[in-house]
Design brief:
By secondary structure, this protein is of the alpha+beta class. The chain folds into 4 domains: 347 residues, 7-stranded beta/alpha barrel; 212 residues, Immunoglobulin-like (Sandwich); 256 residues, Golgi alpha-mannosidase II, domain 4 (Beta-galactosidase, Chain A, domain 5); 112 residues, Immunoglobulin-like (Sandwich). It is built from 18 helices and 52 strands. The strands form 13 sheets. The protein has a 10-stranded antiparallel beta sheet. Strand 37 and strand 38 form a beta hairpin. The radius of gyration is 29 Å and the shape is globular. The protein starts with a helix and ends with a strand.
Length: 972
């Protein structure tokens, strides 16, 4: 490292002594191309994972190289040194988190030298998010957040020259339409990736369709994004890897007996000719790099210099030069060529006929749920920080730490659950620390915003197993403060772990709130790592605008006798299976469930004026070829057939059916008064099989079902079909029909619609008409990515607990709205904070903040967060699609004034580029007719909002089309 450091200092001195040139970045900095030749754009890059076989820090520092040789800090060191030596050289940096870490360690002189490279377009940032996110298991809110974080860091550090224009999703295991839409909404010109189904790739190679125009939204206009598939993954051409991790021969020139220039150039031209056959234009992009390459960048660049020199000396038909994905795409744009169209997505991904990468949709289900908890806390902490005006350095640091770890958790080896166990443990550690810091911010804010200036505001992170340290010794004189991250007042049921005692719940005005004590399922109490001091949940219904507190006190017998309303304990209902047609009915005023007393399973559901025979069950797949990535069905699905033991608990607020399917699957079916969905809370483990839940109905779905794309728009799925090719399903017909379900899967016919909503990412399908299947849990595999050496390893905590929600509706616009509203409540429910009643100060002055209830019901408060010291970032979303609603119009002046706004400006989706400056490349479709004479661009479709507090309220009018998100920066 001392050697590298000396080189770096030397070249820095050369750079400082050199007469500065006028900075030219972006497309203006691209190298010249030759119109009468095939232009080969060499793209030096290193793909640096934010965890996989090693942890994030181990990858950065180059620790534990016996696992994998990788040291990102050395990569950036030596790349910068080599770029400074020659202005023709280029390199793209993708993962902002690693570069930000490296940047903090550099001297001011080194930083100035790097800024020159950025300002001259020699070091270009591509992608630009905190990490290269997965595209199947992520929710769109977290993707937008982590791009906002990465792009903001780049803008604040380098300015406009650092802003990426290209998405670089080269290692994600399949690609979502919503990701493409997000790129378009951020003003990106295109994206490139390296994985698609092997049959799709073969077809595209043969039809010159490796590059295309992706129409990334069915609801939004101008969401077209140029998308390209790389030819040889993201690797160097075979035989031309010059990295120290490779064994390919260097280019040997000069008067030496082993001079190989002629042979190497010949081999390269053969390779170029093969590429040329599969692409449409006279431009070809060739990545030069791989995982953690360029740790000794001099070796890479020295040999690439020679390759460029000797190929170009031939003046044959190939012009080779250093370039970037942005410069390549700019060259394509200038050709005015036409391209094929794409409208759906690239799921599922299969690298061969036996390997559909659909297992990772579900892998590590507890970690997938924990990531959702992290996002929940992040949105809570960000909003509360704005309302309370938190500004201390520690508060900013804690919020940034949570933002950053949530950025890491979107990585394609984190949220996917495909990392090694030690790395998974480290992700959990980081996320836990981030949540604790965010909870500290929330506590500080609530002490300002409520009448508990000394409240504890404890967060209980084990409520998923009905456990809370704050109430384990008793819930007498406890204050539950609820925060609602949604825009509108919401009514939801709250569950607090308590002992089997009597309680009274009151609201802030002293009114008694109806409540019930519900027994926790014995299977949960039996978990070996659970403290069993609290064996019941106190349940009450809360209505919360933004912040509301509810007060719990223990009630002794003398007080109970004088109370008109106090809590009730759910009674156990007797059930009998003496007759073949015996059944148990469980119902609220909105929902009726029929349980078959003989089988113990759900038999029928009535809700929303619709009645349907629905049987819910569990099944298991046993396979010897599955892996953390791959679901290989092996033997046919084994549906559990044994009778189910069940107990019914009946209350005025809540009705529960506790079921035991076998020794490792149990469930609570729950319906609540005033809630229009059925909740299935499952507990599965320990597990050495892939476990699914199945909902069978009589709906005539005809092989069609629907899944969400990252929690946003819906994509139609047709069993055994793909948009552009015929899939190879001979060996894996079930796995090949699995799709990612981030929030919703449903099927319907002309009259009825059955919808499942989930609380984390899972894989799902409809193999049989009228049936929906979700994979809930699967083993932790210790295997390679292709499913060979297949065996599993059970961990010390091999249980998972989660929820699936059922909605049954008539097919209508209103039902779609109700489903999307439920989706938001499931994704961002109330966050619960616990304090002691003794800390209440009725006379405490509380800070006011804006009310969002005036917004139309379909408008979601997607983001409200501190952006800079004097700025707030606000995102508003119309969450219905164009099949369910029209555009809505409203005035945001009340929000602007309530946040102390002075000026407001509209930006692209990421918050870092004024919308008025967005200019995005437009490409021509094959069927577009006549070609334009000059290159065309997309710009903002509406006049960007820009206003000052001195202007009339009419200047603050906003319209939102279905599925539209608008982003604003409010200066205080």
């Amino acid at each position: 490292m001392k050697y590298f450091g000396c080189i770096f200092i030397f070249v820095l001195l050369l750079a400082i002594d050199t007469k500065p040139t006028e900075a030219v970045c972006g497309y203006e900095s691209c190298p010249e191309t030759k119109p009468n030749m095939v232009n080969i754009h060499l793209v030096p890059h290193s793909h640096d994972d934010a965890g996989w076989l090693k942890t994030v820090d181990q990858y950065y520092y180059g620790h534990k190289n016996r696992i994998q040789h990788a040291g990102v800090q050395y990569i950036i060191d030596t790349v910068v040194s080599e770029l400074i030596k020659d202005p023709k050289r280029r390199f793209i940096q993708v993962e902002t988190l690693f570069f930000a870490k490296w940047w903090q360690e550099q001297s001011e002189e080194a930083q100035q030298s790097v800024k020159i490279l950025v300002n001259e377009g020699r070091l270009q940032f591509t992608g630009g998010a905190w990490s290269m996110n997965d595209e199947a298991a992520v929710n769109y809110q977290s993707v937008i957040d982590q791009f906002t974080l990465g792009l903001k860091w780049l803008d604040e550090t380098f300015g406009a020259c650092a802003r990426p224009r290209i998405g670089w999703q080269i290692d994600a295991f399949g690609h979502s339409r919503e990701q493409a839409s997000i790129f378009a909404q951020m003003g990106y010109d295109g994206q490139f990736f390296a994985r698609m189904d092997h049959s799709d790739k073969i077809n595209r190679l043969d039809t010159l369709a490796m590059e295309m125009i992706w129409n990334a939204s069915e609801s939004l206009d101008q969401m077209e994004l140029f998308t390209g598939m790389l030819y040889n993954h993201y690797k160097n051409p075979p035989g031309f890897c010059f990295d120290l991790l490779c064994q390919d021969p260097p280019i040997i020139d000069g008067s030496r007996y082993d001079n190989n220039v002629e042979a190497r150039v010949h081999d390269y031209i053969i390779w170029a000719q093969e590429l040329e056959r599969h692409y449409r234009s006279n431009h070809i992009m060739v990545p030069m790099g791989d995982d953690f390459h360029y740790e000794y960048a001099q070796r890479n660049f020295k040999n690439m210099d020679k390759l460029i020199k000797y190929v170009n000396q031939l003046q044959f038909k190939y012009h080779v030069f250093y370039s970037t994905p942005g410069c390549y795409l700019n060259a394509l744009h200038q050709t005015l060529a036409t391209w094929p169209n794409k409208t759906q997505d690239f799921f599922p991904y299969a690298n061969d006929s036996n390997s559909f990468w659909t297992g990772y949709y579900t892998s590590r289900p507890t970690q997938k749920r924990f990531e959702r908890d992290g996002n929940h806390m992040l949105q809570t902490a960000k909003q509360l920080s704005v309302f309370a005006g938190l500004s201390s350095e520690q508060q900013k640091k804690d919020l940034d730490k949570l933002r950053q770890i949530m950025g890491v958790m979107q990585h394609h080896y984190a949220i996917t659950g495909t990392e090694k166990q030690a790395v998974s443990n480290d992700y959990d550690r980081l996320l836990y620390e981030g949540i604790i810091g965010g909870a500290g911010n929330a506590r500080d804010a609530l002490r300002v915003l409520t009448n508990l200036p000394e409240g504890e505001f404890e967060s209980c992170l084990q409520l998923n197993i009905s456990e809370c340290a704050f109430t384990k010794d008793g819930a007498d004189n406890v204050v539950v403060t609820l925060f609602n991250p949604l825009a509108h007042t919401s009514s939801q049921y709250v569950r607090v772990p308590v002992k089997e005692e009597s309680y009274q719940v009151t609201d802030e005005k002293g009114r008694v709130v109806a409540s019930e004590v519900v027994p926790v399922a014995w299977q949960v109490l039996a978990l070996g790592y659970r403290q069993n001091s609290t064996q019941h949940d106190l349940v009450f219904k809360a209505s919360v605008n933004k912040i509301a507190s509810y007060y719990i006190k223990k009630v002794v017998k003398a007080e109970r006798d004088n109370e008109i309303v106090w809590h009730k304990k759910l009674k156990e209902v007797e059930t009998h299976a003496e007759e073949d047609d015996s059944e148990t009915v469980v119902q609220t005023s909105q929902i009726k469930l029929v349980i078959d007393n003989n089988s113990g399973r759900l038999k029928k559901v009535e809700m929303n004026g619709v009645s349907e025979n629905i049987e819910q069950n569990f099944g298991e797949y046993v396979s010897k070829r599955s892996s953390q990535y791959i679901f290989s069905e092996g033997e046919p699905l084994n549906v559990l057939t044994a009778d189910v033991k069940f107990v019914v608990y009946d209350g005025d607020l809540v009705k529960e059916v506790h079921q035991q399917f076998n020794e490792w699957i149990s469930q609570v079916i729950r319906i609540s008064e005033g809630v229009n969905r059925v909740e299935f809370e499952w507990l599965i483990g320990p597990v050495n099989k892939e476990i699914v839940t199945i909902f069978d109905s009589e709906i005539s779905s005809n092989g069609v079902f629907y899944t969400d794309s990252n929690g946003r728009e819906i994509i139609k799925r047709v069993k055994d079909k793909r948009e552009d090719f015929t899939p190879d399903l001979e060996n894996e017909p079930t796995s090949g029909n699995y799709y990612p379900v981030t929030s919703r899967i449903y099927l319907q016919d002309n009259a009825k619609r059955m919808v499942l909503l989930n609380d984390r990412s899972q894989g799902g399908t409809s193999i049989v008409d009228g049936q929906l299947e979700l994979m809930l849990n699967r083993p932790i595999y210790t295997t390679n990515i292709f499913g060979n050496v297949a065996h599993f390893q059970l961990r010390s905590v091999p249980f998972a607990r989660g929820k699936v929600f059922l909605m049954l509706n008539a097919v209508s616009k209103e039902s779609t709205f109700a489903e999307r509203l439920a989706e938001k409540e499931i994704h961002l429910p109330f966050w619960k904070f616990f304090s002691s009643y003794s800390n209440v100060n009725r006379n405490a002055a509380v800070k006011s903040f804006p009310d969002f209830n005036f917004l139309p019901r379909s408008v979601h408060l997607l983001t409200l967060e501190p952006f800079t010291e004097h700025e707030i970032l606000l995102r508003l979303e119309n969450f219905v699609d164009d099949l369910a609603a029209e555009a809505v119009r409203f005035n945001i002046r009340p929000i602007f004034d309530g946040l102390g706004g002075v000026e407001i400006r509209e930006t692209t989706l990421d918050g870092n580029l004024p919308l008025s400056e967005m200019k995005r490349m437009k490409f021509q479709h094959d069927a577009a007719g006549s070609r334009p004479k000059t290159a065309e661009y997309f710009t903002a479709q509406h006049k960007p909002l820009s206003a000052h507090k001195s202007q009339e309220a009419s200047e603050f009018s906003v319209s939102l089309k279905p599925m539209q998100i608008r982003t604003f920066i409010i200066r205080k």
